[in-house]
Amino acid sequence: MAKQEDDFKKVISHAKEYGYVFQSSEIYDGLSAVYDYAQNGAELKKNIREYWWKAMVQLNENIIGIDAAILMHPTTWKASGHVDAFNDPLIDNKDSKKRYRADVLVEDYVAKIEGKIEKEVAKAAKRFGDSFDKKQFLATNQRVVEYQEKADTILKRLGRSLENEDLADVKSLIEELDIACPMSGSKNWTDVKQFNLMFGTKLGANAESAMDLYLRPETAQGIFVNFLNVQKTGRMKIPFGIAQTGKAFRNEIVARQFIFRMREFEQMEMQFFIRPGSQKEWYEKWKENRLKWHLSLGMGEDNYRFHDHEKLAHYADAATDIEFRFPFGFKELEGIHSRTDFDLSQHEKYSGKKLQYFDPELKENYVPYVVETSIGLDRMFLAIFSHSLQEEELENNTTRTVLRLPAVLAPTKAAVLPLVKKDGLPEVAHKIIDDLKWDFNVIYDEKDAIGRRYRRQDAAGTPFCITVDHQTLEDETVTIRHRDTMEQNRVAITDLRAIIAKEVDMKSWLQRMA
Fold this sequence. Notes:
Distance between the termini: 38 Å
CATH class of the largest domain: Alpha Beta
Radius of gyration: 26 Å
Helix content: 40-55%
CATH superfamily of the largest domain: Bira Bifunctional Protein, Domain 2
CATH topology of the largest domain: BirA Bifunctional Protein, domain 2
CATH architecture of the largest domain: 2-Layer Sandwich
Strand content: 15-25%
Strand order of the largest sheet: 3-9-10-16-13-12-11
Structural class: alpha+beta
Largest sheet: 7 strands, mixed
Shape: globular
């Protein structure tokens, strides 16, 4: 656990040092669980969003995108169940006065058990080498099986208790597991209570007549209330999907783990409208499709897993999470939910407007069912950034820090470096930039020795460095250096565009999903 904490601290520090993420309002000592995306962070975030949008909307003829408002009529949230049921179970430690999410305390306990399993696997892999069968080891090693059974039993009990709103049993589980306050080590807990997570605000200039509103806690409802508008104007036939990205807000009392859990965050969601009765088939299809999208980025299949929900939301008949191995363990990255017809039926009921589809093949009206895919953009950012940050030992017994971002997502695709700041080399470098900037985000860097500049770009995640030297003046060739291998090649200036495009082209990356 100590190593995990150290690794995560390095991620946070690196994100600030290299212009990815800053604490919001830092000059005023910051605002808890609110962050600003800096110059490189804004670019990386934009590229992730675009990678998702292209895969979800542009490449699917039956999925279209919208951008719904953050502020919605307050009855929206009554219909959706958020006013009455959008709660987190919280528990206070009487000695430290710290408040925690009760379910997270239990999940963190289980994560420690999973850490023990991973240690056993690592030891066995080292002992048996190439002959090691991980799947068989997990199924047959007595110690590992006992660890897994204990973890499963705990999570099943937690799920049942939360589903039945048996908060007393959640507290009993915490006490039985002997879970201590992470800050003080005290085990003196209060009862578990529910806390609504929505931010309230007002609409109107007059305090007496102003309407009470909420900042949306999710983006999905903006899709549901626009279902008929989109279906009719887009002449969409079921099955079809509506996608959007946008900000959502939750008053997380226990916000932590950097940008993993924030009060202001961004979602990338798609609601797929289908015939009732076909939800199981579509649910499985979207599970497969979404995992392929993640794997297309090349971050390793072992770093992902599905986690089926023990406790289903009030609207769902099936739900799973795609979990990613963050520095602090496997945590939810994307949710895939079979939402039935709950949302559209509720909005029909509360609005008095029909939200039905006439199926020309069946010749009947019905309220469509929905399969949802929902991914946190900020969590995706953290997954990519934390996985990419590596310290590498080199052959000359030195180390380098390298941010191996997938090239398709890297904020800056290439840095153009004049070997020296004279002899016309800066002018040639700027000319190269002026040519490449129409297709790629490129930068100029002339400060420090060339080796230092390479290291700086490695740490910033730039896939290519292009060095302009005196030979360039003679034959119009440059040295192009690859971030991941540090390999250097002499190429013609006229070939640069094609070389870079081959590595960063979104089409070639997304075709890995096929």
